[in-house]
Design a protein that fits this description.
This protein is an alpha/beta fold. The chain has two domains: 13-147 and 268-300, Rossmann fold, CATH 3.40.50; 148-252, Rossmann fold (3-Layer(aba) Sandwich), CATH 3.40.50. Helices cover 38% and strands 19% of the residues. The chain has 14 helices and 13 strands. The chain has helices at 13-17, 24-29, 45-56, 80-89, 102-110, 151-159, 179-193, 205-218, 229-233, 235-244, 254-258, 269-284, 306-311, 318-321; strands at 32-37, 67-72, 94-98, 116-120, 140-144, 167-172, 196-201, 222-225, 249-251, 263-267, 295-296, 300-305, 326-328. A seven-stranded mixed beta sheet has the order 7-6-8-9-10-12-13, with helices on both faces. Helix 3 (45-56) links the parallel strand 1 (32-37) and strand 2. The N and C termini lie close together (7 Å).
Length: 329
């Protein structure tokens, strides 16, 4: 039973995600957007389509009157500074920096003159992207999805489903700039709920194997997977591992639940990409980032995979069912 349907248009994805050199004449005729993302293009066609929808809201169509140069860090945060510098060297008109705060910080370090529109899941003031949300100042503004600010909410949902004396594993990528804030949020929520949590660090495939080995050995009762681009790129594998160990798990993004994960709670990422594209469009039309307040996403979605819940032998409390936006059967 679906209370809200998600529709993704994938047409033209391959062409959109692949970068091909343009002639100097084409660059002269059209503004160039630098698209800097900490993740990989795989599985993100609908998100990039959302970015292009935002551009179209301001009459900008890729390949017709605007060029987009895509740079993907492939989940390797240390690649971002070089990629940002490369876009600055290309003299792009604006940089869209997407994927928690790391791409925005890399772009900000690379230029103080080219406009930057970030999309992040953490607090941009705490991360030093801007000095305030209402008056960002300088050459930087953006969109906040607050995917990392919802870890306490996710732990609360998991708390409703598993024995209160049991240990919950927390999968965390300590290499992420958001990791410290995520850990503080989880620990504070655990204290409030009276839960025991065990943090498991993972930033590579081998780390994931080791983490689930510990989970299996120590018989954790549940798992919270924090929001991270590496985890997102491995979402199908993480879901398969959690289900193989009969582990109720909560995730940050809808596609985990679609892949068989028990449940996800987070912001609508496709809409966040659309908002980012729209802000880039406004900048290209002449508005200054300093005059554009940082927007906060207000679209949240709680998705429950009922088939997985049944396979895990879980009974979903009526209070949890009452707030579900979509049930996957």
């Amino acid at each position: 039973m679906k209370r809200r349907k998600f529709i993704a248009h994938l047409g033209g994805a391959v062409a959109a995600l692949a970068w091909s050199p343009m002639s100097s004449a084409q660059y002269a005729a059209k503004p160039v957007i630098g698209f800097l993302n900490s993740g990989t293009p795989t599985g993100r066609a609908n998100l990039v389509a959302g970015f292009r929808r935002g551009l179209r809201e301001h009459g900008l169509v890729e390949g017709e009157n605007v060029v987009i140069e895509y740079r993907w860090a492939d989940n390797q945060y240390d690649r971002l500074p070089a990629l940002a510098a490369e876009l600055v060297g290309r003299k792009v008109s604006v940089i869209a920096a997407i994927g928690l705060s790391a791409p925005g910080l890399a772009a900000k370090a690379a230029t103080s003159t080219i406009p930057i529109v970030f999309q992040t899941g953490s607090d941009p003031v705490k991360d030093s992207l801007v000095t305030s949300l209402g008056r960002p100042g300088g050459n930087v503004t953006g969109i906040v999805n607050f995917v990392t600010g919802l870890e306490a909410k996710r732990l609360g949902l998991l708390h409703e489903l598993i024995p209160k004396s049991a240990v919950v594993g927390v999968l965390l990528n300590r290499k992420s700039v958001a990791a410290e804030g995520q850990l503080k949020d989880v620990e504070a929520a655990a204290r409030t709920l009276g839960r025991q949590v065990r943090v498991l660090n993972a930033s590579t495939d081998q780390d994931l194997d080791a983490a689930f080995g510990i989970i299996s050995k120590e018989k954790f009762a549940g798992l919270l997977v924090t929001s991270d681009v590496f985890f997102n790129s491995q979402h199908k594998r993480i879901v398969a591992l959690a289900n193989r160990h009969s582990l109720p798990a909560v995730y940050a993004i809808r596609f985990y639940a679609l892949a068989g994960g028990l449940m996800s709670y987070g912001t609508d990422l496709a809409d966040g990409y659309r908002q980012t594209g729209a802000y880039v469009g406004r900048v290209l039309k002449g508005e200054r980032p300093a005059d554009l307040p940082v927007l906060q996403s207000t679209k949240f979605e709680f998705v429950l995979n009922l088939k997985t819940a049944q396979a895990l032998g879980l009974t979903i409390p009526s209070g949890v069912l009452a707030i579900v936006d979509e049930v996957i059967e």
